[in-house]
Structures are given as structure tokens and as C-alpha cells.
Amino acid sequence: MAWFSRPGRPCDACRKRKIRCLVSDSTRDCVLCRSQGQQCAFVEAPPKKKRKQTDVESPEEAAVSSVSPAGTQKEPLHDYSKFPEASLLSQTLGHQPFRTNSYIGATSSPSRLLLELPGTSELGKYRASVSGSEVRRVSQDGYFLMLQDDQSAIKEQLEVLDKIEAAISPHGPALVELYFRIVHPSFPILHKDVFLVKYGRSYRELTPACLAAVYMLALNWWSYSVDLADFVRPDVSDLEQLVPCLMAFDKAAKVSDIQAGLLFLQRPRRDSWRLTAQLVATAEEVGLHRDCTAWQIPDWEKGVRRRLAWALFMQDKWGALVHGRPSHIKADNWEVFPLEHEDFPENVEEDHVEQGSSEVEKGILIFIHLSTLTQILSDVIDELFTVQASKRHDSTVALLQTAKPIQLRLKSWYNSLPSCLELGTTTSRKLSATGQLYLAYLTVEVTLHRAIVESEVKKPLDAGLRQITREAAIMRFKSVVDFLKRLKPEHMQGFWHFASGSCLAIIGTFSLVLLATSTDPGESKAIYSQIAEFRWLLNINGPGAGFTKPAVDLLQSNAGFLATYRPQAPTKVIPGNISDRADQSADEILTTALSNTGRQDEGESNSANTQAFENISEDFQALPSGISFSPNQAWLYDFDDLVSQACST
């Protein structure tokens, strides 16, 4: 399949944007119109031609012509600051080709105070100390150093761009269309029109990292394109080999490189935590941590900066969780306002009609709600898992007091989800990304309960509170099992956030913690059976959804551990105890715990503790309405055989 510029007249949409009208030999509609879910139109009359002005060749244009492959004509690159006010790229701060902007901080050199002083003459005016730079003021206290890339860097970048394009040619436009159909609605960190405007003029107006990242992610859904399905998929390793040089630490900081880095991180990577740290530093370099509401930049760029900032916030916080590392982003230096619908230029009218696409409106809501959930996760980590947090909690009761308001926020967050994001609500022949949102929510719940269960081992609770907290924790694990049962192929084949696989592994670890800390035979059997169910569901959902592999590998490698805690007389049906009480209300569970559990000789102290947590028990034990308990089920698979093999080795 070949893509080429439409001979003769471009369609109305491409003419408005002044970009090439790219069509293939198998379709009548161009890549821009197909990405918008519309047909090419030729209704408007062409504008009157204006007399051409002779332009002096810019350094960028000279660089383009000097490295153009033989027989290939490259489009000239543009200085966007000279575009007319009506242009989408006019006055952009961070999207100029071959230019870098560096945020001037409060303690850096040059001084923001001195920059504000009016000079009595041009000679006496305070200047930035960086040679060849100029200062751009975007707000009262917002200054940036604007730097021009040197010629050797420009030449190298253009050469790499040509290598990237050659690696996937002639499928580039089809992959771009696929990316904006499936990935972008669920992970909207690019500005669709800006990307297509640049790409429509020349792929050389993009940065190598961003172009490669879009191609690499789109390759995951190769078979979902009617234009690509019959062709051999390019080897992604050719692009993977370029990633280290694309994200090298010595490169100039650019907004597009942060976008590219986040896209690269949605694929499994061994260096993901180090790359995250690099992206946070790059974001600080370009001022992404600051509020840009009042900045003198295009409105669309403000939206991009907010979306990108929150995507990085999510990457950092979820990365901190799955790697067990301190977060890089601190609240004291985070000024970005919460996301609103106005920050997303796409709308439901841009939903793609082609089957296998993602839904735009749902994607926006998922992204917004995931960002607010991540703020709660951030507090879970800060309040329960940091070095200093562990010193603040001298008892599990103290930890419960810290956990209670966080649990209430989680409950409120869940109740705020719109009905269109219910897990069972899917659209015919459309992919759904709601699975990642529910998995993220359940992981935060599990992480909260893990802190309580592990604390209780070293700092025991009285028997009544211990029973309450363990029943709540086991219920959370059961809700995960129920969640996995309700997933459909539309979920499994959709976009899943980078942490999804690790979230399942964290939940698997939590189940092992529950099993290892259980002191009741009936409870142990129930947990063991739920772990078997968990593994079975991962196996049957796994084909075609590689993100389940970390959890499967975790349980596989811990077969010996499971054998150690295997119930003496395993049954084919989940036993009673906790599961028999699944339909009881939180109040009934609490009442039973208080009436049937003997008191330790702390008397009034323990009684007061139990009374203090009457409310917390309700929050910990009430499952959200959309997630039900797993029913008793016969397990007809080889989980027990796996453990038996471990026993005999």
C-alpha cells in the first residue's frame, strides 16, 4: 500500500490546514479525514492565489536540503513564530522545530528580577548569560530562555528521522491513523491536529522520538487496520534500537520528547523507572510543573501542557508504587490545575466509525478520573509507605486512623464515576479502556489494605478488629476476581496503562500475604481457592493481552510457596466461613465480630478502639455497587496439580 499526495485539488480539510492531502491507492479519503472519522469534501472554492514573497532560506531549511535522501523532495520547515495569528502554530512556546525552551526558575541565572528591570538603553539592558539565547516572557513571573539547536544537532535529527521513516515505509500514514484511532483517545497526550498539520507537511517537522513512539505503539494494533492487515508487519526492533539515542540525557529538553518518553513507557521496559526520572527532570526544564492558565501561549498548547503534566504525574506515582521507590514529584512544587473537559480539543463527534476504534468521549473521562485517582494513590504512598510514614505509626490502630479518610476519598471517587464508565457498558465493535480504570482503583484499595495487614503482623490488633480488617481485605481480593470475570474481549484488546500488568502482580502478591498471615483453616482454604480462581482467570484472559504475564509469572514462580501454605484437605468447592458471609452487610459483620470474639484483657481500651472503628469497618467492607463477590465455584483446572508438583520437587 502506497501513500501519496492527492493529485490536483486537496480536500477542504487539508486546504484549511495548508497540509498535504495524503491518500492511499486503496481509499478515496485522506489520512486527516479518516482520522477525523469523516469523508473528504470538495465543496469550498479554492482561495485566490497571492503573490509569492521571496524568503531567505533559514538554517533549518538549509539543513533539510543538505541531508535529503536522493530522489526525495522534502518540504521546507517553518518558523512558527512568523505564522499569522489565525494559524494553529502561531506563538507556540514548546512546539517550534529545532528550538528549545528552558524555564527560568526563582534561583537560577539569569535573574527574573533583573529581567523585569527596564533598561535605559539597549546597551545597559540586563541580558541572559547564555550565548545565542533570547528571553520570552509568558506571564508576570514566567520567563523562558529560547535556544536555537546547533547545526550538527539539526543534521543528526533529520538523519534519524529519515531512518525511522525508512524502517516503516510506506506504512507511516496508516500507522498514524491507527494511533489516533486506538491509542490517542485513551492516552491523549498529543494534540491531534498539531501532529497531523506537521506530519501533513513533512514528517521532518516532528522530533525523531515522537515519530518513533507513535509508530511503535500503533504497531501493537497492526491487524486492526484494513489497510495494513494484509501486509507483513515491520520489525519493531528496528525502532527499539533507536530509543536509547532518541532519549539520550545530553539532548536538549523538548516537550515532544516528554510526550515520546511517556509513549515509550507504555511498552514494557527494564529501565522504566530511570526513564521516568529523566522525564520528570525534562518536564521541570520546560516548566511543565507550573500553572500555565495566564500564560501568553495558544489555548490549545495550554491544554496539551496540562494533559501532559498529569500524564507524567500518573507515570511517576504509579511507577513509584510498582517499583517501590520514592516519588519524584512533590506537592510543594506542583502547581498544575486539575484537568477539565476544556483541556481536550476532541469530542464525541470525532469518534471513529471504523470497527476496532476507541471511543473519544469515554477516553477523556477515563483520563480525567485516572488523574484524580492517582492523587489519592499519591497520598496512600505518602501517608502509609514512605520512610517517615512508617515511623509515625507506632501501632496498627494509628495506621487505621490515617487510612480512614483515604478510604472515604476512594469511596467518594468511585461514586463519582459516570454511568457511561460502568465496566459492563461497551459499544459494539469498539475497544474499551475502562478496564484499566477499574484495575487501577482496585489496586489502590488493595494497597491500602496491604499496609494494614502487614502492620498487624508486627503490631497486632485485638481479635475483633483483626477479624474485621482481614475480612475487609479478603473481600477486596474477591472483588478483583469478580472484576476479572467481567472483562470482555473489548476490554482485553483495548489500551491498558503501563502499570496494569504490575497492578495485577501487586494484587497477586497481596493474595500471598493474606494466605501467609492467615491463622484460621477455613479462611486459608477460602483464600487459597480465590488464588486458584485468580490464576485461572489470568490464564484464560491472557492470550492477546500480554499485560497479564507479570501476575501469571508471579504465581508460577511461587508454586513452592503456595505448597507450603496449602490447606491439608483441599476441597473442590470454596468453603464457608468468609464466603458464606459474603451477602451480609458491613454492620452485620461488625456485630458478629463484636459479639463472638473474646476480649483481651485491655478492657476499656480495646472497647474504645472497637467503638472508634465502627464507621471505618463500614467503609472497608462495603463493596462498590458495580463489583460483586465471587460466588462459590468448583475449580476444574490444574492449579492444585501445579502446587502438588511443587510439593514433590
From TrEMBL:
Keywords: DNA-binding, Membrane, Metal-binding, Nucleus, Transcription, Transcription regulation, Transmembrane, Transmembrane helix. Residues 46-77 are annotated as: Disordered. Residues 61-70 have a biased composition (Low complexity). Pfam families: Fungal_trans. The keyword Transcription regulation applies. One of its GO terms (biological process) is nitrogen catabolite activation of transcription from RNA polymerase II promoter. One of its GO terms (cellular component) is nucleus. GO terms for molecular function: DNA binding; DNA-binding transcription factor activity, RNA polymerase II-specific; zinc ion binding. InterPro entries: Carb_Metab_Trans_Reg, XnlR_reg_dom, Zn2-C6_fun-type_DNA-bd_sf, Zn2Cys6_DnaBD. The chain crosses the membrane at residues 495-516. Residues 10-42 form the Zn(2)-C6 fungal-type domain. The keyword Transcription regulation applies. PANTHER family: GLUCOSE TRANSPORT TRANSCRIPTION REGULATOR RGT1-RELATED-RELATED, TRANSCRIPTIONAL ACTIVATOR PROTEIN DAL81. This is Zn(2)-C6 fungal-type domain-containing protein.
